[in-house]
Amino acid sequence: MDKRIGVMIVDDSAFMRKTISDMVEASSELYVAGKARNGLDALEKIKRLKPDVVTLDIEMPKLDGLDTLRRMMEECPTPVMMISNGAESTLEAFDIGAVDFVVKEDLVKEVEGGKLINFHQRITAAANAKLPVSSVTSESKKEERQVELAKEKEAFRQKQKMSMIVIGSSTGGPAALQKILTRFPEDFPLPILIIQHMPPGFTKPLAERFNSLCHICVKEAEHNEKMEPGTAYVAPAGLQTAVQEIEGHYQIKLKISAPVETLYKPSVDVALLSIAPIVKDKLLAVILTGMGDDGLRGCKRVKQAGGTVLSESEETCIVYGMPKVVYEAGLADKQIPLYDVYDQMIDYL
């Protein structure tokens, strides 16, 4: 029995099918389980060949990527990595059940540069990922939350001990973040900084999407912006986000380079290393699903400064990487499933 990871490639472009196929075959741990040029063809082959993971193009004839994904999640649930250039369609794919995505142009650049390790790591992580539950928040569900939110508002006023929340996430993060952020009431008394690994051009649409669903304000962070209570700031992709304390308030600083070596822009480590010394024991850091170890160095600094760290448990992580290293290093005050993260955060306020 083949123990390698079987990859189904779905793309209407013969060039992209060949490109992804070559990338897959370059790894001894992966193999091409099959190829399809449209969604209908893909659904039939996925049911028959049962691949471990599917790379899925968005724009295809007969049945496009999003409709294919919807039917897959209903008929033959399989981990999916979207191949896309569009932020809006990619974010919708996360709502439906995709676990990760790769920008098509970046994929071609990796091939041309001979740097395939990132793709191989991500496709492997996607194959081993747990399928997320759809995170679409309906208007009726938002209305059902009004009574709970009203009860929580008074509790916030009485309990507030923290000054800032920082949330770090990567693979599987958008869906996890949406589940948490939609629970905050409009007058939440703290600023929230979100460090989500994403390529340039995707963090602003992500913030806008969250803002349309949430009671609090959610926006992409801007340089020299004063952090306000009841606002969640999404760190922009392609830059490093730090925070300084100026005249008694916290101010966002966007930088091209980082004071520490890191693979990520934005980096959870960079943000926490700048914030922990100034917020100290009033900082709550939350590490959610994601591949790699970004956040480990930052959480060490948070604990040294007297702050609190929560990490998502393996039970609900799409990829149990970032939270795992934090927990195994003994840095997490608590390790909890996603559905308990919000309540635990409130307990620490």
Biggest sheet features: 7 strands, parallel
Structure classification = alpha/beta
Domain module count: 2
Q: Assign an overall shape.
A: elongated
Query: Low-confidence parts, pLDDT < 50 over ≥5 residues?
Result: 134-143, 155-159
Please give the count of helices. 14
The CATH topology of the largest domain corresponds to Rossmann fold
List keywords for this structure.
349 residues; alpha/beta; Rossmann fold; 2 domains; seven-stranded parallel sheet; five-stranded parallel sheet; elongated
Quick rundown:
The chain has 349 residues and is an alpha/beta fold. It has helices at residues 14-25, 39-49, 65-75, 87-96, 104-113, 117-127, 139-144, 146-159, 173-181, 203-213, 268-279, 296-304, 322-328, 338-348, and strands at 5-10, 30-36, 53-57, 80-84, 100-103, 164-169, 192-196, 217-220, 231-234, 240-246, 249-255, 283-287, 308-312, 334-336. 41% of the residues lie in helices and 21% in strands.
Describe the 3D structure.
The chain contains 14 helices and 14 strands. Helix content is 41%, strand content 21%. The protein has 349 residues and is of the alpha/beta class. It has helices at residues 14-25, 39-49, 65-75, 87-96, 104-113, 117-127, 139-144, 146-159, 173-181, 203-213, 268-279, 296-304, 322-328, 338-348, and strands spanning 5-10, 30-36, 53-57, 80-84, 100-103, 164-169, 192-196, 217-220, 231-234, 240-246, 249-255, 283-287, 308-312, 334-336. It has a seven-stranded parallel beta sheet, sandwiched between helices. A five-stranded parallel beta sheet has the order 2-1-3-4-5, sandwiched between helices. Strands 10-11 form a two-stranded antiparallel sheet.
